[in-house]
Specification:
The chain has about 325 residues and is of the alpha/beta class. It is built from 11 helices and 10 strands. It folds into 2 domains: about 200 residues, Rossmann fold, CATH 3.40.50.1100; about 100 residues, Rossmann fold, CATH 3.40.50.
Amino acid sequence: MNAPRHFGLDRHVGKTPLIRLRRLSELTGCEILGKAEFMNPGGSVKDRAALGIIEDAEARGVLQPGGTIVEGTAGNTGIGLTVIGHAKGYQSVIVIPETQSPEKIHLLRALGAEVLPVPEKPYSNPGNYNHVARRMAEEKGWFWANQFDNTANRLIHYRTTGPEIWEQTDGKVSAFVSAVGTGGTLGGTTLYLKERNPKVFVGCADPYGAAMWSWFTNGNTETNDGDSFAEGIGQGRVTKNLEGIAVDGAWRIPDQDALTILYQLLREEGLFLGLSSGINVAGALRLALERGPGQTIVTILCDSGAKYQSRIFNPEWLTANGLKTDMPLETLLSKP
């Protein structure tokens, strides 16, 4: 009798299922599928980036046994680096904007990371959380993960996320939609799917206040048109993970649209998700309405709603910010 096979935590990143979003599929005549990245060990799609970055650093010899990983992150990459780092014998120091949800900061500390909250600053400011992490790495000899410009990030999506989507749809995927945080998910998955079938339509769902809609639509990052409560997405520059990536369409997604979808998915389909997932699914809906029925559209369900209970699942916070939880899903069907 063969002995059972046991693998470390890192071997359980990825291979997440595709979940059919029933109501949206019925309303549009498309198959709208969400890749359940909240089922990764650290609870988000960022586990893939964390694993790819760590393995690449090990292969290049820049991360030694017992070493320390430092990263500037909105939270989820830090969680991934911490849990996978623990499994591989590394310590983590996480620099996070203090505007992120308190649940993320508490969770990072509970997982054993050293957490340094810093004031929110634009990338052009030396006090930006990414620059703080880089300086700490230089001063202390730590490994800086550099998720935004380390292309090991998009490479792991090319090696795993893209192939998984292709296989899980039996090559029938006709469209892929993703928001941009670092650009790794959109960049790597796009490269793989376009290699397999250049006709796969790729779309970017962008929150207000970010620059990717402007970049993919107008070729610049100058549009400044509002703000969003979404965390972990909303990029203002073209990162190295996005260099050379072209998409076929991009949409501005208001927070209310994303929230309307989130609450429908929770109440009717049992999916408890964060706002970035709502923005992704809203982008998939826009694509379905624009291109018509009969498509197989895949998007990313980035993480669960557990880290956002004090905000987007808090009635008092929602009321204070003018957001509603009872908008009918049908109100989104006539969006331009």
